[in-house]
């Protein structure tokens, strides 16, 4: 029996680091589908909230649903496109958050700053997260494991090619400096409140970036803070939250309280959050 068959026959325990690699492989497969559709030409339509959805979002979500059902059978999947079509599953103690194509605006434009995001949420907190940007070949993965260890990684990966975790490079947030912060913020959805907060901070450099790649910059110590004081959804944040936590940082509500997850009644909306590098 091959390793892949073995994994299919016996689902991995939730705290097993091999689960992170399996989720990364699912993201790499979805990334391959996204790049193929991008090459063929993008068919864009607009959802009720006027955000764009493409054939790539839908195809990537379909492949992720199949992969995740194989990797974690029976674990509910809360995925952006299913929820927007009223077909969302119900979150349980353990559930998955999936954004099949985060940064659709960047995808529809020329930028390669779009990602596949997968988060495993356990007991209300994102414990594993994978962010894969197929057009720029960047994979981020991180989480906390049953051993009590938390680890975060990055890797340069081609879409569709299975990932060897041995080749992943460990990453850490950098300690937030007292002066001259590096801040990262949305390229396409920068709101006035976030701009005001940024203006109030001692910032040496500001990076604009699309999608969950912003969390990768915090996790690898390239940025100290990623504030977002306008609404996003749990699938935009969960994977990055797990990654940044595993790298020694944090993601919280602006008042410092924990971010809640699995809020079906709020349609999974996250009104605001701030991601920080390593504090004190
Ligand atoms: N008003 C709003 N309500 C909910 N989510 C929003 C939003 N405005 C932006 N977003 C989310 O922010 C994501 C883009 O983030 P960024 O600006 O950092 O690239 C979008 O992801 P999708 O592209 O997956 O729809 C979208 O879900
Ligand atoms: Mg998104």
UniProtKB/TrEMBL annotation:
It is an enzyme of class 3 (hydrolase). HAMAP family: CysQ. It comes from Ancylobacter radicis. The gene is cysQ. Keywords: Cell inner membrane, Cell membrane, Hydrolase, Magnesium, Membrane, Metal-binding. Pfam families: Inositol_P (PF00459). Substrate binds at residues 80, 101-104, 236. This is 3'(2'),5'-bisphosphate nucleotidase CysQ. InterPro entries: CysQ, CysQ/Inositol_MonoPase, Inositol_monophosphatase-like. Converts adenosine-3',5'-bisphosphate (PAP) to AMP. Belongs to the inositol monophosphatase superfamily. CysQ family. The keyword Magnesium applies.
């Amino acid at each position: 029996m091959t390793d892949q068959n073995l994994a299919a026959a016996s689902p991995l325990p939730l705290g097993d680091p091999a689960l992170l690699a399996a989720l990364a492989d699912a993201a790499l497969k979805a990334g391959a589908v996204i790049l193929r559709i991008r090459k063929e030409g993008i068919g864009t339509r607009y959802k009720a909230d006027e955000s764009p959805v493409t054939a790539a979002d839908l195809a990537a979500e379909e492949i992720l649903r199949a992969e995740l059902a194989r990797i974690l059978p029976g674990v509910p999947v809360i995925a952006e496109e299913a929820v927007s079509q009223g077909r969302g599953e119900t979150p349980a103690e353990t559930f998955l958050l999936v954004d099949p194509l985060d940064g659709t605006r960047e995808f529809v434009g020329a930028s390669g700053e779009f990602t596949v995001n997968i988060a495993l949420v356990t007991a209300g907190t994102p414990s594993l997260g994978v962010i894969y940007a197929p057009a720029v070949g960047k994979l981020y993965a991180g989480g906390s494991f049953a051993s009590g260890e938390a680890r975060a990684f990055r890797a340069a990966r081609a879409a569709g090619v299975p990932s060897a975790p041995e080749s992943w490079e460990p990453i850490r947030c950098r300690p937030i400096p007292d002066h001259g912060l590096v801040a990262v913020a949305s390229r396409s959805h920068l709101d006035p409140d976030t701009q005001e907060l940024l203006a109030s901070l001692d910032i040496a450099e500001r990076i604009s970036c699309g999608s969950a790649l912003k969390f990768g910059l915090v996790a690898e110590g390239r940025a100290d803070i990623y504030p977002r004081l306008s609404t996003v959804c749990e699938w935009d944040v969960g994977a990055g939250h797990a990654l940044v936590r595993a790298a020694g940082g944090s993601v919280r509500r602006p008042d410092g309280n924990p971010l809640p997850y699995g809020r079906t009644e709020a349609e999974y909306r996250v009104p605001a959050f701030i991601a920080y590098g390593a504090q004190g």
